[in-house]
Design a protein that fits this description.
Elements (H helix, E strand, L loop, with lengths): L3 E2 L9 E6 L5 E10 L10 E5 L4 H13 L9 H8 L5 H12 L3 H11 L2 H25 L7 H22 L2 H9 L1 E7 L5 H9 L17 E7 L2 E7 L9 H15 L3 E7 L19 E6 L14 E3 L8 H15 L12 H22 L4 H19 L5 H9 L6
Helix pairs in contact: 3-4, 5-6, 5-12, 6-11, 11-12
């Protein structure tokens, strides 16, 4: 504390003072607050210093602290210490990272729910239910000479069905979690020179893609992220699907099709002057559920032109129809997520893998019960399911897994 000249810090009380380096020179007028363990973010004694925003000042203070014996944190070290000290479980620690990287309102809401323990509570309840089932089975193991009463068998099946249903519902939110964390991959496709790049530029609000009257300008895909409504969309402008492409265009089309197969939404663009042109062969088998059809250059349409049913008329030049397109994009995602309520958890890939393992074990138990297999095997699979649920909460002693997870955090968290 000798670096701070403003009086001894009392726990959870902000003080003001001069920060002096090890040689006694004043570096800044700062605010500082002391947190005594376990009432801190990490669960350890900690001191927070707030200096002026000049990067040079903060760098000087950090350098002085290092001279005094402090060390720089690894990525995610503060949150890792909080986890190891029992301040949060692993799913909550992951929510910290989700909150830092959230790019939309819905992503922030989902991360905050998980940070406040929504996923943890569901795991605890599933573990409690399965533990009760294991207790029933192990009672039968201890007294093998007695038949399991019909009412006990029925109770075990009901409990198991409840856990399987809840686990399946939770696993189904994996797609929702992926959309929130990574953004909605929205691929813009169509024939050359129909206005795909102009539409991208209009949506993002600046000239992100090169626009030219010459067909085939876009040879590679261009990606830009924007927020529409409550979601982050990754708009991907692709090479035009030409019926007789040149070799370089063919490479661009190949990349377009690769992005198309990996998309969440597809925006098919057609020119108002050629709306009846045959649909490119690559788009004929595209499903309708995740497709939005756009008539571009609507400002050039003759007075007699009527927008076909199910299409959106848009002018990238004047902005006509762009708000409707934005609303339609957001509405498509609302439709995908309509079965989710405000308390729904958006699981990540690690959670999905653990839930898959749990479901595999639980479905095996179902088969074993139906075939009247040994209680020992049934109990073993039930414990495997419990272990999978515990893995989500982080009740594992695997330093490699923890290092890999926290390595993805930024410095200072």
């Amino acid at each position: 504390m000798s670096a701070l000249w403003g009086g001894p810090p009392l726990p959870r009380e902000m003080r003001r003072g001069d920060y002096r380096d090890i040689g006694g020179k004043i570096l800044d007028d700062v605010l500082y607050v002391f947190f005594r363990a376990p009432h801190s973010y990490t669960g350890e004694d900690s001191l927070e210093i707030s200096c002026h925003g000049n990067p040079f000042i903060s760098q000087r203070i950090v350098e002085d602290l290092l001279v005094r014996g402090a060390c720089t944190p690894e990525p995610g070290e503060f949150t890792k210490r909080a986890f190891l000290n029992g301040r949060m479980d692993l799913s909550q620690a992951e929510a910290v990272m989700d909150l830092i990287h959230a790019r939309s309102e819905r992503a922030i809401e989902a991360a905050n729910r998980q940070l406040r323990g929504s996923l943890s509570r569901r795991m605890e309840e599933l573990i409690r239910l399965l533990t009760a089932v294991v207790a029933e089975i192990e009672a039968y193991i201890d007294f093998p000479e007695e038949d399991l009463p019909a009412e006990d068998f029925a109770r075990i099946e009901r409990g198991l069905d409840s856990v399987i249903r809840e686990t399946s519902d939770l696993r189904a939110t994996g797609k929702y979690g992926d959309l929130l964390r990574n953004g909605i991959k929205t691929v813009i496709v169509g024939a050359p020179n129909v206005g795909k790049s102009s539409l991208l530029n209009r949506l993002v609000g600046h000239d992100r893609a090169l626009v030219s009257e010459e067909p085939g300008t876009t040879r590679d895909y261009i990606e830009e992220s924007i927020v529409i409504g409550n979601y982050c969309f990754r708009l991907i402008d692709t090479a035009g699907l030409n019926t007789s492409p040149q070799p370089l265009e063919r490479l661009g089309m190949s990349k377009a099709m690769a992005r198309l197969s990996d998309s969440d939404l597809i925006v098919i663009v057609a020119d108002v002057s050629n709306i009846d042109a045959p649909i490119p062969a690559e788009l004929r088998d595209v499903g309708r559920g995740n497709v939005i059809r756009v008539v571009s250059k609507i400002d050039l349409a003759p007075p007699s032109f009527h927008i076909p049913p199910g299409w959106i008329g848009v002018s990238a030049l004047t902005g006509i129809g762009v708000d409707l397109l934005r609303a339609t994009l957001a509405g498509k995602i609302d439709g995908l997520c309509e079965s989710l309520d405000e308390e729904s958890v958006a699981i990540n890939a690690r959670h999905s893998h653990a839930l898959d393992q749990a479901l595999e074990a639980l479905n095996s138990v179902n088969s074993q019960l139906a075939n009247n297999e040994s209680a020992e095997l049934i109990a073993s699979n039930l414990r495997s399911a419990i272990a999978a649920f515990e893995e989500i909460a982080g009740k594992v002693d695997n330093e490699v897994i923890l290092d890999e997870l926290f390595r993805r955090f930024c410095i200072g968290k």
